[in-house]
Design a protein that fits this description.
By secondary structure, this protein is mainly α. It is built from 8 helices and no strands. The chain has a domain of 67 residues. The termini are far apart.
């Protein structure tokens, strides 16, 4: 079994029901809870990752992702999803109206599509590899972050295979090729720099 720390996906629909149950508690129970909450708590040394040694010895090996599937809450119903989307769209529209009221010259934002998703990954990867640095400044490179972003683009290409239009697939493949090529060039430069012998300080040759 892997030592990777686990996380639990929480069903947010339960929050409202739990809050209502707490409000129904008798006053005596609420007082007990308040007293317990007011007691000093011993200072913690910070978050710690504790391996599940005992469970690893007794539980059989499970396929990767099996525990994750067991802990997932039930999927929202079609009605719940539609209600949430309607509320999200209304909230997003109110936000855009507020921004446009302060900036009358700004036109409406274009609708989001697959091209915008690919463009966002592309911009993130290039910035992580130092693109967009102002002249005279040293580029700040996050090579590991760039590799993660490029890998995510690869996952996107794999999972959407056969479901894209010809134009969408061509855009995705071109962007993926370009960021991978930039990554190869950058890592080659980093490798060459690491192989160069250190230069002695001026005046001590």
């Amino acid at each position: 079994m892997s030592d990777t720390p686990k996380f639990t996906v929480i069903d947010r629909r339960k929050f409202k029901a739990e809050d209502e149950e707490e409000n129904k508690q008798p006053a005596s129970e609420q007082g007990t809870v308040s007293e317990a909450a007011s007691k000093p708590v011993a200072p913690s040394a910070g978050p710690q990752l504790v391996p599940n040694e005992g469970r690893r010895k007794t539980e059989p090996e499970q396929a990767p992702g099996a525990e994750m599937e067991q802990e997932l809450p039930p999927a929202p119903t079609a009605e719940e999803s539609q209600q949430q989307k309607t509320a999200y769209d209304a909230s997003s529209q109110r936000l855009e109206d507020m921004i446009r009221a302060q900036n009358p010259a700004m036109g409406p934002q274009p609708p989001m599509g697959f091209d915008q998703v690919v463009q966002q990954f592309y911009m993130t990867a290039m910035i992580q590899m130092g693109a967009g640095t102002q002249e005279g400044q040293r580029p700040r490179v996050d090579i590991l972050g760039a590799r993660t972003t490029i890998d995510l683009l690869g996952v996107l290409a794999e999972k959407t295979r056969g479901n894209l239009t010809e134009a969408e697939d061509r855009t995705l493949q071109a962007v993926l090729f370009e960021v991978r090529m930039a990554f190869l060039e950058l890592t080659s430069m980093i490798t060459l720099q690491s192989m160069q012998p250190p230069q002695p300080p001026p005046g001590k040759r």
